[in-house]
Specification:
Blueprint: H1 3-28, H2 33-40, H3 44-52, H4 61-74
Helix pairs in contact: 2-3
Length: 82
Protein backbone atom coordinates (compact mmCIF):
# COMPACT_ATOMS: atom_id res chain seq x y z
CA UNK A 1 0.00 0.00 0.00
CA UNK A 2 1.37 3.37 -0.98
CA UNK A 3 1.93 6.15 1.53
CA UNK A 4 -0.89 8.26 0.03
CA UNK A 5 -3.31 5.33 0.17
CA UNK A 6 -2.45 4.70 3.82
CA UNK A 7 -3.02 8.36 4.67
CA UNK A 8 -6.34 8.35 2.82
CA UNK A 9 -7.44 5.20 4.64
CA UNK A 10 -6.42 6.71 7.98
CA UNK A 11 -8.38 9.90 7.21
CA UNK A 12 -11.45 7.83 6.32
CA UNK A 13 -11.18 5.96 9.62
CA UNK A 14 -10.94 9.25 11.54
CA UNK A 15 -14.03 10.60 9.77
CA UNK A 16 -15.94 7.40 10.54
CA UNK A 17 -14.97 7.70 14.21
CA UNK A 18 -16.16 11.33 14.30
CA UNK A 19 -19.52 10.36 12.79
CA UNK A 20 -19.95 7.55 15.29
CA UNK A 21 -19.01 9.84 18.19
CA UNK A 22 -21.51 12.47 17.03
CA UNK A 23 -24.37 10.00 16.99
CA UNK A 24 -23.34 8.48 20.34
CA UNK A 25 -23.10 11.97 21.86
CA UNK A 26 -26.57 12.90 20.60
CA UNK A 27 -28.08 9.66 21.88
CA UNK A 28 -26.31 9.94 25.25
CA UNK A 29 -27.89 13.35 25.78
CA UNK A 30 -31.22 11.90 24.65
CA UNK A 31 -31.50 14.40 21.79
CA UNK A 32 -33.09 13.93 18.41
CA UNK A 33 -31.38 15.13 15.26
CA UNK A 34 -33.88 17.98 15.21
CA UNK A 35 -33.08 19.03 18.78
CA UNK A 36 -29.37 18.96 18.10
CA UNK A 37 -29.85 20.90 14.88
CA UNK A 38 -31.82 23.55 16.75
CA UNK A 39 -29.15 23.80 19.46
CA UNK A 40 -26.45 24.25 16.80
CA UNK A 41 -28.64 26.48 14.63
CA UNK A 42 -28.18 24.26 11.59
CA UNK A 43 -30.68 22.42 9.41
CA UNK A 44 -31.75 18.95 10.52
CA UNK A 45 -30.45 17.64 7.18
CA UNK A 46 -26.99 18.84 8.19
CA UNK A 47 -26.99 16.62 11.29
CA UNK A 48 -28.16 13.68 9.21
CA UNK A 49 -25.46 14.29 6.59
CA UNK A 50 -22.76 14.57 9.25
CA UNK A 51 -23.86 11.27 10.78
CA UNK A 52 -24.11 9.54 7.39
CA UNK A 53 -20.80 10.92 6.19
CA UNK A 54 -22.16 12.72 3.14
CA UNK A 55 -20.95 16.00 4.60
CA UNK A 56 -17.71 16.62 6.50
CA UNK A 57 -17.96 17.42 10.18
CA UNK A 58 -16.64 20.95 10.77
CA UNK A 59 -13.73 21.55 13.12
CA UNK A 60 -15.81 23.72 15.48
CA UNK A 61 -18.26 20.92 16.25
CA UNK A 62 -16.48 19.28 19.23
CA UNK A 63 -16.37 22.61 21.07
CA UNK A 64 -20.01 23.32 20.25
CA UNK A 65 -21.05 19.86 21.46
CA UNK A 66 -19.11 20.34 24.69
CA UNK A 67 -20.97 23.61 25.27
CA UNK A 68 -24.34 21.97 24.60
CA UNK A 69 -23.54 19.16 27.01
CA UNK A 70 -22.49 21.61 29.73
CA UNK A 71 -25.68 23.63 29.33
CA UNK A 72 -27.88 20.55 29.28
CA UNK A 73 -26.25 19.20 32.44
CA UNK A 74 -26.77 22.51 34.27
CA UNK A 75 -30.53 22.51 33.69
CA UNK A 76 -32.37 21.59 36.88
CA UNK A 77 -34.16 18.28 36.77
CA UNK A 78 -37.91 18.67 37.03
CA UNK A 79 -39.39 16.95 40.03
CA UNK A 80 -42.90 15.60 39.98
CA UNK A 81 -44.95 16.48 43.06
CA UNK A 82 -47.47 13.99 44.37
Amino acid sequence: MKKEERKEKKDEQKELAKRKQLKEFRERLDMTQGELAEALTVAINTISRWELGTRSIPEFLPLALETIERRKNKKPQSTAKS
